Amino acid sequence: MKYMVAVTSPKKSENVIGVAAAHALGMGAELIVLRVIPDPVKVGVVAQLISSERPLEKATEHIDKIVEDLKRRGINVRGEIRTGKVASTIVKTAEEEDVDILFAGACHPDDRGFLMNRRDPIMEYLVDKLPTTLCIVRTTFEQENAEDDNGENSEIKENIADG
Hints:
The protein is of the alpha/beta class. It has one domain (2-154): HUPs (Rossmann fold). The protein contains nine helices and five strands, in the order E-H-E-H-H-H-E-H-E-H-H-E-H-H. It has helices at 10-27, 40-43, 45-50, 54-72, 86-97, 109-112, 121-129, 141-144, 155-160, and strands at 2-7, 30-38, 77-84, 101-106, 133-138. The chain has a five-stranded parallel beta sheet, with helices on both faces. Helix 5 packs parallel to helix 7. Mean pLDDT is 80; it is low at 149-163.
């Protein structure tokens, strides 16, 4: 079996990584940890002007730390970093890797009223387009509203990628 977990910032990804890792360990499945960095060219002119190598460096650092930790726990894991539109890149990677289950985090219902809605375009896209099983893992309210490593709320950056 092959599983994939889509992650964002470290704090926002804790729950989904934990759930995916437990399932991968229990089933002896390979686990792919995927981080998609929004392509500044596709996001807009302002993003192009302020883009740097920092997002890739931080993503690499984050993925490497996750992979190292999960390997120590006996999980067959590898990391992937891709650039593009977030939701469509997740779907494309899941198809290319022929994964059995994709684990993805979703907003906490206290924050938005219910698990999935129109304000979560990435999750809506995954539900509509993903050709495999999707395991939705709720984040806590604190995780959903956590600041990323740059001191900015990364939710806006993640959601505009497929907007």
